[in-house]
Amino acid sequence: MSYIMVDIESDGPIPGDYSMISFGAVLVDDHLDKTFYGKLKPISDKWIPEALAVSGFSREETLTFEEPHIVMQNFADWIKEHSKGRQPVFISDNNGFDWMFICWYFHHFIQKNPFGHSSQNLGSLYKGVVKDMFQNFKHLRVTKHTHNPVDDAKGNAEALLTIKKEFELKISLK
């Protein structure tokens, strides 16, 4: 089965009322060279300037981005092309937030989610591996966390590969 690390940027706290502005994904394997980057036109007139600022884009720039249904279909096609085995696994640094947007956008715009109905949380995995709920995996990233979602997904994938190696995590990365 394939693990796909995802990171999103948004202009607010929830999908529907606010918009996912961009997202990045990387197929977790030894190369980390299969990536996807999507920039999506806002779906709502509501936006929080401080939330949008994290993405590095202005509201005017986001209005020129691609229609969400096109981006989500392109992402579904990318997932199908790059994943092997049974259903791909969605994993992220903060799956409560990232999953919420990706799942909502998939169902809203293309009526299906290639990841199914579940996701995995990298932070929780690390806490379990080290048996300490106060620990954080972020020191295991190699790629700097820039809020470019591809960079951030890649850094998180690097951390997962380090956890796999250093803690002999049983995980199949196909």
Instruction: Report the sheet-strand fraction.
Output: 15-25%
From N to C, what is the helix and strand string? EEEHHHEHEHH
Count of domains = 1
- Uncertain runs are none
Q: What is the CATH topology descriptor?
A: Nucleotidyltransferase, domain 5
Number of E-state strands: 5
Let me know the average pLDDT: 97
End-to-end CA span:
6 Å
Q: Largest sheet, if any? A: 5 strands, mixed
The radius of gyration over CA amounts to 16 Å
Task: Describe what this molecule looks like in 3D.
By secondary structure, this protein is of the alpha/beta class. The chain has one domain: Ribonuclease H-like superfamily/Ribonuclease H (Nucleotidyltransferase, domain 5). It has six helices and five strands; from the N terminus they run βββαααβαβαα. It has helices spanning 49-55, 59-62, 68-82, 95-110, 122-130, 149-166, and strands at residues 3-10, 20-27, 35-39, 89-92, 120-121. A five-stranded mixed sheet has the order 3-2-1-4-5, with helices on both faces. A hairpin with a 7-residue loop joins β2 (20-27) and β3 (35-39). α3 (68-82) crosses α4 (95-110). The chain is globular, with a radius of gyration of 16 Å. The model has no long low-confidence stretch (mean pLDDT 97).
